[in-house]
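RESIDUES AND SHAPES:
===
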Amino acid sequence: MNISPNHFDRGKPFYPLVVNYIVLLAGFKDLALRGAVGGEHLEEVLRRTFAVGNWQAATDEEFGKVRENLSKLLGPLQLHSEFTGSQVAVNIDTLAQELVSNVTYLSSVVMRSAGSLLILAHELTKDAPWRDRGPLWEFLRHTRNAAAHGGSFNLHQNEPSRPAHWGSFDITRQLNGTPLFKDSTGLGLLSPGDPIRLLWDIEQAYPPMSVSA
């Protein structure tokens, strides 16, 4: 099943979370490619920008404005710091090379972002009036707990205290100590696409969901 971010309802809480999660993963992939084959040059980007036939029609002022804007996009990432009152500059090409040099280590840590999606989804909805203690929400709660506490299931005392299942997945005491996401050996429960599908299924199962309440 293909689930695009725009399939999620913009009036419900999961849409911006899923979009940002996908942007992060897509950015990781694109930066790895940039580090391997090199970044795009400004002149080439400009040529493609006006390839539809507007290159000759653009005035010098329009061309200069496009060049300026594209230069900013292709240049260092500028992040304002309130603490310093200045910009924290991140050179994208340097970052891309760093990623390529440490791709095995860094790609394993990327899975934390999938856990962050579950954590944010839980936190944004935990007090909502349309949220109950049904199996889907309990599944989200337990996966959120695993993501927030070292990346593995910690099922102590009477947990799971209520049924927690999603499709063929069941949260049971036997999962205690199991990684939330599969590692390189195949040990674990979920894969990177599962948080998206879980949130989609929750959204479909609870039509009253909304951002405001």
Remarks:
- The longest strand covers residues 77-81.
- The helical segments are 14-37, 42-49, 60-74, 92-101, 103-125, 135-148, 194-205.
